[in-house]
Amino acid sequence: MTDLPAAAPGSTPLVIRDATVADVAAGSLTENQTLVLAEGLIQDIGSAPDLPSDAREVSAGGRIVIPGLIDAHVHVLAGTADLFRQAEESPFYVGARGSQIMRSMLRRGFTTVRDVGGADHGVSRAVAEGLWEGPRVVFGGRALSPTGGHGDGRAPSRFASDDTCCDIGLVCDGEAEVRRAARHQLRTGAHHVKIMLSGGVASPTDRVDSLQFSDSEITAVVEEAEAANRYVAGHAYTARAVNRGLRLGVRSIEHGNLIDDESVELFRAHSAFLVPTLVTYDRLKAEGAAAGLPPASQEKIDVVLEAGLRALERAWRGGVDVVFGTDLLGAMHPHQCAEFRIRGEVMPARDVLLSATETAARLLNAEGRLGVLAPGAAADLLVVDGDPLQDPGVLADPDRHLRAVVQAGRLVTSSLP
């Protein structure tokens, strides 16, 4: 069981009356419920629970209450799409900009995020201590990349060696180096270790269809993560890269736009998770140049854009555990909720919501504590107009439908009486 990252709890109990409570897994709604929240947890849910005498009370007005959302693929410090240039910025400036990115994520309803490159224990701690307003942060530190891989930001003409050549990556080669790098991330409290299994869009010198790291290097990282009761997340696009990672023990595949039928079988056989990030390709194509994405990266987008939705449908129909992710960078962060609408093109609304709640919580080893509305779970919840179990557009348009955000029992934002 992974330690649950904290969020600053509310100082007084909160009672939400006249709520229609969603059971996302069952796809059902229960009307006329009262939720009692205290000490950061859901204390009780029922038609007539005992109420603390000092509680603040609000009415949901019959609206639907759902668990707080989880985005399992973010970069909260990515203030630009040119991550390698950002490495030259002051870390204080990067952090200040990241705090604003996180605040906006929380106000869109994301009460927990998994950062897969860049955020560290300090970011998570800032939220836990109430220094920054944002989602609770499950972090992995720097993603591990081989020389010339997806985390190596050097241009082809640059030969100087710099192991930490961007904010999100750490370059390491050979079994000994990758073991040391994995142990370093775990030493800082990382909840997972991310590795690059294939090329990517944002890196300047690798092909999207390349394989990265050897079998022995990947196995070394998996062994180190499992020894620490953590897991490995693998960036991969092609079926060849995905399937190799799954066979070697990688627990979550990030992106996976080019998976095949064998991939689906391997996901199920290894109880692994797929984290598609479809909105990022849509927005990179539309806004990447303006957001700072280098021309070499812009040319790669079409390779993965068209296949992404087909891969999601293939995985969902094949019974793969699909988790919500977005992977947005820079000025594209505000489009985070558009991922709900995109997924709704090939998945039922309930399954889309499940990917951002209970299924995501299982990936985070936080089942029963995140992504559900039940006594003892974190008091993270949203009050919405409309039914997200029937219409993914409800979550895709928070400005219109999101009426309240509660995190750890604290009313973050509300238009409720």
TrEMBL record:
This chain's protein is named Amidohydrolase family protein
Looking at the record, the residues that make up the Amidohydrolase-related domain are 64-412
Species source reads Nesterenkonia aethiopica
- In terms of superkingdom, the source organism counts as Bacteria
Q: Which PANTHER family match?
A: ALPHA-D-RIBOSE 1-METHYLPHOSPHONATE 5-TRIPHOSPHATE DIPHOSPHATASE
Which Pfam family, any one of them, does this sequence belong to? Amidohydro_1
